[in-house]
Amino acid sequence: MDNLHWWQRGVVYQIYPRSFKDTTGNGVGDLQGVIEKLDYLYTLGIDAIWLSPFYPSPMADFGYDVADYCDVDPLFGDLATFDRLVAEAHKRRLKIIIDWVPNHTSDQHPWFIESRSSRDNPKRDWYFWRDPAPGGGPPNNWGSFFGGPAWTYDERTGQYYLHQFCKEQPELNWRNPEVKAAMFDTLRFWLKRGVDGFRMDVIGLIIKDKDLRDNPPNPNAPANLPANDLFSRLLQVYNMDQDDVHPVIREIRGVLDEYDDRCGIGELWGPLDRWVKYYGEHGEELHLPFNFRLMDGMSWNAQQMRAVVDAMEAALPDFAWPNYVLGNHDRTRLATRFGGQAQARVAAMLLLTLRGTPTIYYGEEIGMEDVPIPPEKIQDPQGINLGAERTRDVCRTPMQWDAGPNAGFSPPGVETWLPLAADYATHNVAVLSADPTSILSLYRRLLGLRRTRPALQSGAYRAVDVEYDDVYVYYRALVAERYLIALNYAAEPRTLAIPGETAGRIILSTHLDREEAVSLDALTLRANEGVIIAL
Ligand code: NOJ
Questions:
Q1: Which of 31, 172, 367, 524 lies at a 20 to 30 A Cα distance from 464?
Q2: How far apart are CA 163 and CA 381, in angstroms?
Q3: Radius of gyration of the chain (CA)
Q4: 534 CB neighbour count, 10 Å cutoff
Q5: Is 439 in the pocket of ligand 1 (CB under 6 A)?
Q6: Measured at the alpha carbon of residue 54, what is the angle toward residues 49 and 55, in degrees to the nearest 5?
């Protein structure tokens, strides 16, 4: 176990800084707030913090529109606060991973301001500028993820620029060597300040088809798409996952490797055979291409989840380390997605007992659910452009620390940037910490077990066939240390025989009320119960 890297051994915890802890009383979380909660994170038992963007930004996409890659937005603090955060985290042996947004800048970034100033500006080629199509209109048919075309016409110079997100997020031209060099320097800036890794935003998008060809129509596009959702009507063929993205990722990895033991995580999706390539042919690209397969398009179904894990385990080359994500700032909360609190507990056991690095999204440990956002309070550009049901605000609401005013997130009397969950008085860190059977206590126990049981960290994974489709059973084994994890997805009890096993000892139940010897000829799981059994 000891020869594992920290990013293999550890558990990542994602913080959306706007929503974690507000220390200035403006309704928005900040870096000082993260510092103040480091002891909470330390005692929770996570190992690394991933911070969503805190860079200077006009906030068109809440920080994913970066106006300066080498500073901190005054809303969140300053570089001195960031340095203190790194130092305080490191004192507690917590690693710091920061978001890096290489595909696009803000339209307020000085590079773009220069680039758009004239056709012959030296930075013109740093972005994608194209003439209108013959006959007028955008240069190709690509759509923006957030609705409308991926091109905006700029009167001043009579050309269009490319943006696959908001029009305030123009895309950088990574085929230009000056862009690469400038962006590599932004990595070095933070590496020198001591960050331990980067989560790289939409990394599969940074290289596009050389000729920017039209994407083909998507034959499976849902019929009821909003009229402006041009993106979902097309297959994403020429705008992402181009073969020639891989040499660039190897160069990015080269920059990380100039420093000791830093980690590169990429935001990626798409089919398994394409996704797995981002590890590189011999592990020379990303350490962890984020794996969203248990999240995207997944319902609460034991067999579907098992199939996804088995397929991924089979697809990974020996050098590749798995990882799992069940929630983030772009998706509905897992408790909402999978059906409720009972499912959220089983999901926690799944996430923290699979082989590979888990990422926990802030608030999952207290079972946060989607918070309904009144239409006039919607902030997310995706929700504003594509309709209220697509808003990501629902999963970005303030962290619930206690039962006091504003849930202890902001001082009393302040209006928080998004509404608080209606149930915060009962669903918060203070209340759940005091309850030994709460979901928070479950997370603490799971994280503690994972940290102290080598087989749960790095042991081999093998699924077991059992007689019920709604029970997912697997082994984690390292030499003589063996565990069986049995997860009942059904809302009723199941009694099953584990082939080849006779007895074991339950060391943790998601209900947190039993630790006992059990017969494995007839193992009874209660409704929505998961157990870890030591063999
Ligand atoms: C992916 C990020 O996770 C999302 O929040 C953002 O809107 C887009 N990339 C654009 O940067």
A1: 367
A2: 14
A3: 24
A4: 16
A5: no
A6: 135
Say if strands 523-525 and 357-361 run parallel, antiparallel, or are unpaired.
unpaired
Instruction: Measure 53 CA to ligand 1 centroid, in angstroms.
Output: 10
Hey, is 325 helix, strand or coil?
Answer: strand
Degrees, nearest 5: CA angle 99-105-107: 145
Strand partners, 152: 161
Is 165 a pocket residue for ligand 1 (Cβ < 6 Å)?
Answer: yes
Task: Please say whether the beta carbons of 230 and 146 come within 8 A.
Answer: no
pTM above 0.85, yes or no: yes
Q: Around 293, how many Cα atoms within 13 Å sit in the side-chain half-sphere?
A: 20
Helix (H), strand (E) at residue 186: helix 177-192
pLDDT in tens, 125-154: 999 999 999 999 999 999 999 999 999 999
Which tens digits make up the pLDDT trace of 317-369?
999 999 999 999 999 999 999 999 999 999 999 999 999 999 999 999 999 99
Instruction: State the Cα–Cα distance between residues 342 and 437, nearest whole angstrom.
Output: 12
Asked whether 61 lines ligand 1 (CB < 6 A), one says yes
Q: Residue 324: what are its φ and ψ, rounded to 5°?
A: -135, 140
Cβ atoms of 338 and 326 closer than 8 Å: no
Active site residues: 201, 258
Residue to substitute in 14, 61, 171, 290 for testing ligand 1 pocket (most ligand atoms within 8 angstroms of CB): 61
